[in-house]
């Protein structure tokens, strides 16, 4: 005896079959890392604050630790270029890790770009911005980001990646 299933129920069944949780070990996720002004100088600039490691070395460690995740790095000192990349990645990736550098405290335009995209964005800071100058204590971006991680050195990027992996499981 053949069971008749309505078209909407068949479609729902297909959707449920397609929906799967991200498994770090078997699924590919695409995460865009976006670094703002002066972060191209990591390892050289103020090592007492930012450490002596380049971001390329950090990225290599992340790629080795998370082989099932496609990590792409973009860095620019130009606000408009960062906005363009947020818009592009916001519709083409599973998440964004953003260190907007000094633009964190000043850029309404970057805030609006984050708010306009569906991909979750995690704001990252290498240093503890609350232990630094007063002007660094306010972020224009935090309210529109999925979360904020600060003060753990370059390990802040790994923590942000872990947060995005967990968020994508839900």
UniProtKB/TrEMBL annotation:
The active site is at residues 50, 125. It catalyses: 3-dehydroquinate = 3-dehydroshikimate + H2O. Substrate binds at residues 99, 105, 112, 126-127, 136. The record marks 45 as: Transition state stabilizer. Keywords: Amino-acid biosynthesis, Aromatic amino acid biosynthesis, Lyase. Its EC number is 4.2.1.10. One of its GO terms (biological process) is chorismate biosynthetic process. It comes from the Bacteria. Pathway: Metabolic intermediate biosynthesis; chorismate biosynthesis; chorismate from D-erythrose 4-phosphate and phosphoenolpyruvate: step 3/7. InterPro entries: DHquinase_II, DHquinase_II_CS, DHquinase_II_sf. GO terms for molecular function: 3-dehydroquinate dehydratase activity. PANTHER family: CATABOLIC 3-DEHYDROQUINASE. Catalyzes a trans-dehydration via an enolate intermediate. Belongs to the type-II 3-dehydroquinase family. Homododecamer. This is 3-dehydroquinate dehydratase. It comes from Proteiniphilum acetatigenes.
């Amino acid at each position: 005896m053949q069971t008749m299933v309505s078209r909407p129920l068949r479609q729902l069944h297909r959707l449920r079959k397609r929906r799967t949780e991200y498994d770090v070990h078997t699924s590919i996720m695409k995460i865009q890392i976006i670094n703002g002004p002066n972060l191209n100088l990591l390892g050289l600039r103020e090592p007492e604050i930012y450490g002596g490691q380049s971001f390329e070395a950090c990225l290599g460690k992340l790629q080795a630790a998370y082989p099932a995740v496609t990590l792409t790095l973009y860095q620019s000192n130009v606000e408009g270029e960062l906005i363009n990349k947020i818009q592009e990645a916001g519709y083409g990736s599973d998440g964004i890790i953003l260190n907007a550098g000094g633009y964190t405290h000043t850029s309404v335009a970057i805030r609006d770009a984050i708010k306009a995209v569906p991909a979750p964005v995690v704001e990252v800071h290498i240093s503890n911005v609350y232990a630094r100058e007063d002007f660094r204590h306010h972020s224009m971006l935090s309210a529109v980001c999925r979360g904020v991680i600060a003060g753990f050195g370059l390990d802040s990027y790994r923590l942000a990646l872990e947060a995005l992996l967990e968020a994508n499981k839900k």
